[in-house]
Amino acid sequence: MTPGLLSDLAVGALFGEGVGAFFEFGYHAVWVQRPPLAASVDALDLQREPYGWNALRAAAGVTLPL
User: What is the predicted pLDDT for the residue at 28?
Assistant: First the structure.
């Protein structure tokens, strides 16, 4: 089982005629458990380690008309 959580929030605003700005905030988390290695040799005593990843994102920008 590989559970994952993803959440994002985006906020935007327009200023004047055709000029805009945006702000984004996001968080992403993934966790992978420790499953057995089916194709490994027992004498090697190999194992897969669990993996976790957490990312926090923040972005801002300005849009201009072309």
Answer: 72
DSSP class of residue 10 equals E
As given in the structure block, the two tokens for residue 49 are 């380690």
DSSP assignment of 21-63:
EEEEEEEEEEEE-----TTS-GGG---PPPEEEEEEEEEEEEE
| pLDDT tens sequence across 21-43 | 888 888 777 777 777 777 888 88
Of 35, 28, 31, nearest to 9 (Cα)?
Answer: 28
Residue 2 has pLDDT above 70, yes or no: no
Given a contact cutoff of 8 angstroms between Cβ atoms, the answer to whether 20 and 13 are in contact is yes
Q: Which amino acid is at 5?
A: L
